[in-house]
Amino acid sequence: MKPTATGACEPPEHIVTHDDARVHVSLTVNGRVHAIAVEPRTTLLDALREELALTGTKKACDRGECGACTVHVEGRRVLSCMTLAAMQAGKRIATIEGLERGGELHPVQAAFIEHDGFQCGFCTSGQIMSGVAMIEEAKAGWPSAATADIRRPFTAADLSDAEIRERMSGNLCRCACYPNIVDAIAEAARRG
Known about the structure:
Helix content is 28%, strand content 13%. The chain is α+β, with helices and mostly antiparallel strands.
């Protein structure tokens, strides 16, 4: 690096810096299209929370370890702290704010309330989003590491407590409310 007249160092030639560099991204979140301009390294989590004021998606570990930031992208669960907002342009994104329909809670949301599937609530939105996607994965026949016989077609009726625990293992609850979370997801899966 070469020092400038002021004594500061210039970055190497292959690094280009722009103080105001922003990318324009069109995100479809909960059925609504949002046009935003963000710094290229902005995560989907930060775009949702800071640009769109959708704060139901929680920022906890910010390194993909806890699942509190789980959202759905094209129907699949994604850790929003581990993906860039710019990479999600044009894709369907769903957050916890978009689950209810016409004032009715999603069955997983209702089951979490009925089964006391939360204490402090910090992980709850990620748990619910993961639970919703997990049930859909089971309905689609996806096996897990807990599936005893992967040669046999898997159905949502096969969601035992062990299956639910394995499939939800990426979502941590610091209050250790796991038995109630498993009961809530099992109840929602039974309701179909």
